[in-house]
Amino acid sequence: MSYRSKLIAAHEELEQAGIWKSNFNPPLFRLLRKLGVKSPPPYYRSFQSNFLTSFVFFTPVWGILMYFLGWQASGKSITESAITALVGGLLYGLITALYYSWKSKRCKLTKWENI
């Protein structure tokens, strides 16, 4: 089965499970697909993969925005800001990965390899 066919089947299964489209097809994954990355939806990825993706994309964006929109004015150093951003990114990645893992088990979704 081609990647496109699997993706369509996965999206149908997710819709039938009552998961919102914005949740199973988030902007980051739409962007990755437009760039040619053939990644399964987050509900079909491993805990580690979801954690790493969430951490890597969230941390720098959130850290830079927070530094220029608030931390710099409050006198927070770049080092302190970087550590805060890393901790925030770790927590965000962990919570996101836990959510996708829990929800995919709760909805009894098919494994990506079996679609």
From TrEMBL:
Organism: Photobacterium chitinilyticum
Pfam families, A to Z: DUF6404 (PF19942)
Name of protein: Uncharacterized protein
Record field: transmembrane: 51-70, 82-102
Keywords: Membrane, Transmembrane, Transmembrane helix
InterPro entries: DUF6404 (IPR045644)
